[in-house]
Design goal:
Blueprint (H helix, E strand, L loop, with lengths): L10 H9 L12 H22 L13 E5 L7 H6 L3 E6 L2 H14 L4 E4 L2 H6 L4 E7 L8 H10 L1 E12 L3 H14 L16 H10 L2 E12 L4 E5 L5 E8 L3
Parallel strand pairs: 1-2, 1-4, 2-3, 4-5
Antiparallel strand pairs: 5-8, 6-7, 6-8
Organism: Paramesorhizobium deserti
GO biological process, one term: methylation
GO molecular function: 2-polyprenyl-6-hydroxyphenol methylase activity; 3-demethylubiquinol 3-O-methyltransferase activity; polyprenyldihydroxybenzoate methyltransferase activity
Length: 249
């Protein structure tokens, strides 16, 4: 993918999410799909981190001692469960409104999370390093995917992990994730996703490889309307997650 900007921030995307920031923790609000999606991605993240770092997934705080970044953290829907699992969590988002919402909710629940209104490139430039970077539902909203993943890759420690979740650029995704979810079912506000900004797995893999990361797992995520639930699947045509490890030089 050609570089079109030297910043990863798409100001229109930041403004769009800032306008609905107060909805983050309402399970029946505008972020209802994320609340429904969360158990599936949390289970996957916990399983893979524990396997990679030799932790007992049944322990009360299996991520103790690991430093984790949730980039594009929004209102903190992933930060809080990661903190409860014992990780030292930094939550970063370009929207100051999102960060304020996240800080307030963490304070209400008694969790110590380092929330920052900043960008991936600013964190990388400051020399921040993490055992795990969560990059979930973000790449389809940035202005420059390659630059963004390069900055994120810089922050992963050798043998550390990066999780990326996004939407494939396929006609099936256009029909289900955009037309279906935004215009028919109205699960998400119209305009949440733009088809041309969706990222195909091969494009993601190329950008991750360039950032010094190797993909070690791929998972599709599909919605079951009968159970109103999301499940892992081999079908990566719409929603998918990849796990990459930082190559030790």
């Amino acid at each position: 993918m050609a570089e079109t900007a030297r910043t990863t921030i798409d100001s229109a995307e930041v403004e769009r999410f800032s306008r609905i920031a107060a909805e983050w923790w309402n399970p029946e609000g505008k972020f209802r799909p994320l609340h429904k999606f969360n158990p599936t991605r949390l289970t996957y993240i916990k399983e893979e981190i524990c396997a990679a770092f030799g932790r007992d997934p049944l322990a009360p705080r299996p991520l103790e001692g690991l430093r984790l970044l949730d980039i594009g953290c929004g209102g903190g829907l992933l930060c809080e469960p990661m903190a409860r699992l014992g990780a030292t969590v930094v939550g970063a988002d370009a929207s100051e409104t999102n960060i304020e919402v996240a800080k307030i909710h963490a304070a209400e629940t008694g969790l110590d999370i380092d929330y920052r209104a900043t960008t991936a490139e600013a964190l990388a430039e400051a020399g921040e390093k993490f055992d795990v970077v969560l990059n979930m539902e973000v790449v389809e909203h940035v202005a420059n995917v390659d630059l963004f993943l390069s900055a994120c890759g810089e922050m992963v420690k050798p043998d550390g992990l990066m999780f990326v979740a996004t939407i494939n650029r396929t006609l099936k995704a256009l029909g289900l994730a955009i037309i279906g979810a935004e215009y028919v079912l109205r699960w998400l506000p119209r305009g949440t996703h733009q088809y041309e900004k969706l990222v195909r797995p091969e494009e993601l893999e190329k950008a991750l490889n360039s950032a010094g990361l190797k993909i070690i797992d791929r998972q599709g995520v599909t919605y079951n309307p009968l159970t109103d639930s999301w499940n892992r699947s081999r079908d990566m045509d719409v929603n998918y997650m990849v796990l990459a490890r930082k190559i030790r030089e």
